[in-house]
Amino acid sequence: MAQIRESISILFVTRNPELAERLISAVRVRGQAVRAAQAQDKAEIEQQMLSHRFHIVVLVDSDITEGMQTITGAMQNSGRRIPILVMTDRPEAERVADYDAGAFASIDIALEDLAAIQILKAVEFNLCRTQLHHLHSSLQASERRYLRLLESSPDPVILIRNGRCLSANDAWREYFQIYATEDLAAFAWTDFIVPEQHALVASMIEELGAQADAGETRRIVRLRTLHGRSFEADLVLSDATVDGERAIAARVSLNAESAGAGQLSALDPVTGLHNRGHLLQTLEDTLASVARADLPFAFIVVSVDDFERIHDELGFSGSDILLSDIALLLKEHFPHPATVARLSDEEYGIVLPHVRRSELDRRLAALVKGAAHREINLGHGSLTASISCAAVITDESAPTIEELLDQVHRALDEVRQAGGNGHRFQNLVSDTKARAESDQRWKDRIENAMAQQGLTLLYQPVVNLHGGDSSRFNVYVRLSGPDGTIYEPSDFLPAAERTGMTAAIDRWIIRHAIEALAERLKEDPRTTFFLKLTRGSVIDGSVVVWLQEFLHKQRVPASNVVVSINEAVIVTNLKAAISTARSLKAMHASLCIDDFGNGLNPFHILRYVDADYIKLDGAFVRDVVSNEHSQRAIRSFTEGGHAKGKQIIVPMVEDAATLAVLYSLNVNLVQGYFVHPPGEQMDFDFTQAL
Predict the structure, then answer these.
(1) How distant, in Å, are the alpha carbons of 158, 268, 655, 676 from that of 188?
(2) Which residues, in sequence order, are CB contacts of 223 under 8 Å at separation 6+?
(3) Partner of 437 at 20 to 30 A CA spacing, among 27, 268, 358, 642?
(4) SS3 393
């Protein structure tokens, strides 16, 4: 076990100080310094949590009436997240409830040496988790600073991954005539390059990937706007990281005259407060430093009630006076060391270090009251405006800044829905609870989408590299949110899996896809659809019988359908997968193993499941042009699949260079944005050679 450098602070919840001393001695014997405190009832537990920072709580439940619920409640009120070790004389079968309630361990009260070891393990685990969180936060902070620099750059800059556009700054949008309403994700990176120079840019990307250290490569390249105007420009490609994954930043280098332009001020021009970027930076810095503080910090969001109506009545000038006056009020109530900033139109954010909940409760109540009684002079009249406040108190165990914002806004919405003019504290929920709440929201969205036509089918061609023999389409689904946001399957399918919704989604997709296939077969009788079955449907088993009945009802031959199942689903649910595969074969439908190639011996699965197609995991394709290991892997899969009479499909083909490599490796079928992006129309011409 690694030595913990600092002395560890333990809160013992017990009426038995002798037991606590023996445990402290057992920990010290193992070379670890200890600072300890004791609490015997709810009031003492809450007081200790508010006043001190502990590495672990040891609950001896055999001599005390307080239990896990009291401790976790005190943690929430104090903004702490601390591992709990339970010592008990209850039978082992009754200790499962301790783990369900969040205990790190629940052990017999007589096993003091084991308890000491578990204390050290829990503290080490928590410190490692905190360090990992800090590293993750630092990485996110670096990425955000990098993205802010790109956004403020006077040069046009775009971020790309796998040939797709992730984001672009305003200068790029203006330079290439992209309207604000146009979604960059709909464009391929090559849309901004004249076709004759696609190979040149591919070589630039290859050159960049070959560099040992982060660097850049540049060429004079002929580019084009979305409206067809072409021009020569100095194109610079460099490595970037977005959401923890490698990307490429493409920059059009302009002259140096505007080198100092576009730098963002740290101040909001209307209120004179710090702006959103400064506030997020302060949050990052506070999270990094709070581990060394005895008290947690608070993050507060304040919103002007009914601001939309006020803005309509006062116009911009009157609204700006109101916002400036509220800003002054906030600074009066939260002077240094608090950081007060404008978060969005009518919202302000406050970061307050070294805080106790009872004190903050009084300050927020005074702030709300002060706003309601403050008369704001508009020059041609006056008004009063109420505010809503929400706050979280937390320490270094806080979730990411994005989750912090999301949870405090959830509390703010509750204040607004209750009529505003008030404040509320939000207890940061555990990762498990947060995921359960998120999953429930996704379930509600999915159910609404299925009931109100919020799901849309997209079709992507699966093309034979060696000549068109039939029309094949992979069927995808997209979910539209009530605000018009489009969600990819990767956004909602994990939650659907956890909430038991995937089988229902599968049937919705199959039903609507088969109806579309029935119409398509009237024009092209050889059209084949690839339809996915998730784990929920494979385990259910009845979906194959339902599919056969629905195909018969729509007069669609089963031979025009290929059912895709992920390799991982087959491996972890082998008995159900074998039954599904046999049923599909009996009805003359084909089977495709999706995301193939991740096992130690992938072809071993074919001894149990007789598939007709093998679709490789997209990870093998990402750098296949420059990575010989990926080329050898695809060649091995292709040769092994062909020897067993299987057709090999490679997805995620994003450029011509990748296509050429796959052709040389004798792959059968390909799909990807370079071939054709998914669309609502099946308009691909399979008679044209790639």
Answers:
(1) 12, 36, 10, 10
(2) 176, 192, 193, 194, 230, 231, 232, 233, 235, 252
(3) 358
(4) strand
